[in-house]
């Protein structure tokens, strides 16, 4: 049985909020009603958990594919998750050729009234009005998530689709393309939509939309916001990938536009007297210097960030050896931005013990719940299940320990993975699959010990430790406990 199930059971309690960055330990959020507590966020998300219309092949079906949001929330709650990105996708017609997936996403924020037909043969959009069904869906899904004890970050815009999906529909499938609306709005690339200065008409439409979203969900305690997913971070005539391939579409640096969105959200909340809710900024791609890819995030006015690969996609440092969070931002460490097609339980624990809030880009749940054949697909549902389960297990430990006092410490153990309040409590990861000994620097006292096996998810009491003097000791897990393992040490007497 996993740690979350042992401690909390399946969550059915309203997620407390609104959230704010903890003043005690700013690696985490806290709820206004309990500022002395830290809230650790973790969970699975996928591109179509707000819209319908994602499926295989290049063509849009007459009846868009439905996402089973109820099954999705049940799956998350069963695994102890408490966070989702609620995805925005702006194309009503689009295609990601490498995966052969179409994005024919509906509903959109504006009604299709015509006159005239858009690029998909349906009525053109009227950008001067709103389609209330879109905003009703946002509110309903944030409400449902909250009832399941889950925080929902509403993504306001989407960048990836505007410059990293197949041309020409990356732009021609967007409501702001000239052929698709009755308002004479005509973006030709992401530059016209997410790079300052904007056309005043585009800026006004974006501001109206931002305010409408905030008006829709501002009173919900579990809501958060995100500016956009993977918008571009450099000016160039085309997107060039590390392998030399390219997409022939102009791009620009969206950094200042994202700061503008963050500040407009905060300004509007203040002006309306609404409770403030955290807003995040996530990884930009491409950027001029990959080694400095995350600097715009750290330097931003965002309350939380999701960094991405600044070395190698897939097996880079954010996956193999996540840097410790120094507390300058809440980090929702998202595999979407450095290992989008694979993950495992070991990564989840590494991220947790380095002071991050790990979240999983979960392509195994494109339908919402467990698929008919969990072994099918790449990645399959089954291949990501250890990571899903580990997120709930880490959350269980986060709710058991005194998280506000804990900090990532690479110097306390030979393994380099420790979350600790020295002299009081320690979580140490031994990432080896064998019961290899490792060292821990402890202050004098007696410590209760328990061992958590990542493969079995079982937690087993161990023999207590008595440390007569401050010292570095060698310790190993019992041979019958499969590794990798986590040691939880808690001081019980001096």
Rg from Cα: 23 Å
Count up the domains: 2
Total strands: 28
Mean pLDDT: 95
Question: What top-tier CATH class of the largest domain fits best?
Answer: Alpha Beta
The CATH fourth-level homologous superfamily of the largest domain? Glycosidases
**Structural class by secondary-structure content:** alpha/beta
Low-confidence stretches: 1-11
CATH topology of the largest domain: TIM Barrel
Span between termini? 32 Å
C-alpha geometry: elongated
In the CATH hierarchy, the architecture of the largest domain is: Alpha-Beta Barrel
Binned, the helix content reads 10-25%
Strands of the biggest beta sheet: in what spatial order?
Answer: 4-20-19-18-17-12-11-6
Count of separate DSSP helical elements: 12
Give the amount of beta strand, in percent. 25-35%
